[in-house]
């Protein structure tokens, strides 16, 4: 994240599968906020999994 900020990024976005609660908690601790749901983002072992879109802004307004 530091490298992205140092080279001028102002926003970072990611998607995480909704059943990955440990990753979601980590991203939220880092300041990412949930922006939306990507329905049926992947099919794993025959079942569809939604993903959560998250983003982080590198400025004082963290509303991403």
Descriptive key words:
64 residues, alpha+beta, Aminopeptidase, three-stranded antiparallel sheet, 2 helices, 22% helix, 47% strand
Structural overview:
The protein is of the alpha+beta class. It has one domain (2-57): Gcn5-related N-acetyltransferase (GNAT) (Aminopeptidase, 3-Layer(aba) Sandwich), CATH 3.40.630. 22% of the residues lie in helices and 47% in strands. The chain has helices at residues 2-6, 21-29; strands at 11-17, 33-44, 47-57. The chain has a three-stranded antiparallel β-sheet, with helices on one face. A hairpin with a 2-residue loop joins strand 2 and strand 3 (47-57). The two termini are 15 Å apart. The mean pLDDT is 92.
Could you tell me how far the N terminus lies from the C terminus, measured between alpha carbons in angstroms?
Answer: 15 Å
How are strands sequenced across the largest beta sheet? Answer: 1-3-2
Architecture in CATH? Answer: 3-Layer(aba) Sandwich
Q: What is the averaged pLDDT score?
A: 92
Major sheet, described briefly? Answer: 3 strands, antiparallel
Q: Please write the string of helix (H) and strand (E) elements.
A: HEHEE
> How many individual β-strands?
3
Q: Briefly, what CATH class?
A: Alpha Beta
Rg calculated over all Cα atoms? 13 Å
Strand content: over 45%
* Structural class by SSE content: alpha+beta
Shape: elongated
Domain N-acetyltransferase: 1-59
Protein name: RimJ/RimL family protein N-acetyltransferase
Organism: Rhizobium binae
